Amino acid sequence: MKRSPDLYLEDIIEAIKSVFIFVEGMELGDFNNDDKTASAVIRKLEVIGEAAKNMPGDITNRHDGIPWSYMAKMRDKLIHGYPLCQHSCRAPRGRVD
């Protein structure tokens, strides 16, 4: 049985909240040197991407300002171990309301 889009959205929101908790108070250099935190953040990014991949087209089309495809592609890169930036990516941006 396919999961409800509401559950996928909940997965995304909860993963984003977790990422903000994980990196709270950290400088980018601290993050880059903390494999445990970086691994936890990467795992949550994978969850976000997997949920984005499973969102129905009618929802992604209605909310085309959300980078659904980017989230899904990032998940693929992380899961398959493509070289990204060895944790020294941009600092997390955005906000959770």
Structure described in brief:
This protein has 97 residues and is mainly α. The protein has helices at 5-23, 28-32, 35-53, 57-62, 68-79. It has 5 helices and no strands.
Structure overview:
By secondary structure, the chain is mostly helical. The chain has one domain. Helices cover 63% and strands 0% of the residues. The chain has 5 helices and no strands.
Count of strand segments: 0
Approximate shape: elongated
Give the count of helical stretches. 5
- Overall tally of structural domains: 1
Structural class assignment: mainly alpha
Key structural traits:
97 residues, mainly alpha
How would you summarize the topology of this molecule?
Elements: H1 5-23, H2 28-32, H3 35-53, H4 57-62, H5 68-79
